[in-house]
Amino acid sequence: MKYEANTPDEYIAAIPKERQAAMTSLREVIKKNLPKGFSEEINYGMIGYVVPHSIYPDGYHCDPKLPLPFMNIASQKSFIAVYHSGIYANKELMDWFVGEYPKYVKTKLDMGKSCIRFKKIDQIPMELIGELASKLTPQEWVNMYENAVKKK
Predict the structure, then answer these.
(1) Considering all CA atoms of the chain, what is the largest pairwise distance in Å, rounded to the nearest integer?
(2) Calpha distance 55→37 (Å, rounded)
(3) 151 alpha-carbon distance from chain centroid
(4) Where does the YdhG-like domain start and stop, copy by copy (predicted)?
C-alpha cells in the first residue's frame, strides 16, 4: 500500500494504528544497527535506507537522480515487509538469513527475492533484522551493486 508521506515519521503516522508500534521498533532496530553512511528517507513510497549521492554520486542506474537503494520497510495490505537488496545480490547473505530465521521464529519464512513478509507483527525477529542490517557497509553494498550491474 502507498501512503502519502514526506518523512519516516509521517509514514508511520499514516499507517494503521495497530502496526505503528511494530514499524517504529523495526525502524529503531535498523537505525541502531545500520553501518554509518546510509541515509534514512522516504524511498519508493516506503521508509528507505540508501547510499546517498555524497557517497555514491552515480546513484541508482534505473534513475541516477535517486540515491542507491539498500533496504526498505513498509506496511503493505496484509503484512509488514522488509526489503533488503543485499540478500537478493549475495547468496551467502541469503543463506545466512534463511539459516538463522528458524532460531528466532517458529513460523515458516515468507520471502521473495528481496522481500521478507511478516503477516504476524508480533513475530518480527527484531534482533535478526538488526543483525541483517549490520552485515554490509555502504561501500560493500556499492561494490556488490556495481559488480551486479556490470554482469547485465
Answers:
(1) 43
(2) 8
(3) 23
(4) 19-133
**C-beta neighbour count of 123 within 10 angstroms:** 12
Closest-CA residue to 48 (of 77, 8, 10): 8
Total domains in the fold of the chain: 1
Residue 113 has pLDDT above 90, yes or no: no
Quote the domain boundaries for residue 40.
8-151
E-strand ranges in 60-135 read 68-75, 80-84, 110-111, 115-118
CATH code where residue 88 lies: 3.90.1150.200
8, 42 contact by CB (below 8 A): yes
Q: Give domain status of residue 3, yes or no.
A: no
- What span, in angstroms and rounded, lies between the C-alpha atoms of 124 and 46? 18
**What is the tens place of the pLDDT at every residue in 39-82?**
999 999 999 999 999 999 999 998 999 999 999 999 999 999 99
The verdict on residue 75 lying in a domain is yes
Residue 96 falls inside a structural domain:
yes
Q: 62 lies in a domain? A: yes
